[in-house]
Amino acid sequence: MPGTATQSLPLRFTLGDWDTKAAVRNHRHAYVLPDALEQALETKDWFPPAFLPYLQHPRVEAMGQGACQRLAANHLVYFLDYTTRLEHKIVNRAVETLVHGELDIVVPSAMKTAALQLYTDEGYHALFSNAIAEQVASHYGMSLRGTSPRRISRLLGVISHTPNRHTALAWLLMGFVSETIIAKELLNITRQSLVSGVYEMLRDHLEDEARHSRYFCEVFEHLWPTLDARQRTFAADLLLEIIMIFFEIDEPWLSSSLHSVGPAG
Asked: Cβ contacts of residue 228 below 8 Å, gap of 6+?
């Protein structure tokens, strides 16, 4: 019944007990690397080796454990820098379309409140992702930072080529896909044995992203029936394009990372 559906809306689109359960803000982990870092690295990893199959290449293995650790550290810093940019440039921009009425839909008050809460969470995720990245980069004296990850550049490129009438929808769809995928990525990462500090931050981030993913799914469910046929066609095509972007490999960065530990590195 229409009346029943309308009455149920305020019960949805929430982040639960946000004041006490937003993990990165409230768990109070220090997110610092252990004092005995080199000893920790004897049994723990910077980044899950299963996600870095190139570490098993004979030429990489021949460079020794130190080189493999450095490559994993490079990948961790890249992932964290990517996360910081993703939260600021993609996810929070997607949330702004809901907060500031950029979409031609009715935004229930609960949805708007949760969007503002999510925006705050993402700022913390960016802050602490950067904090860990700075520590690891300082430990190794890294110089591979500063360039935009390929995925971010590709997503922003999609926006630049989107007709103005669809721009707000495109931003929201990017937020929807990115929050769903990063939750899966973090779940896989935090099943591994990682260096403390790194593990705590990623695990807390995962707890938040699980709620964020659910929220974006509910928003999408609310949005889809409001789209006309042309908007649905655009959204379906764009979702496929966005998903494919998330499966692309950043080959220029990977090449630079490998060279950083090679003979010329």
From this structure: none
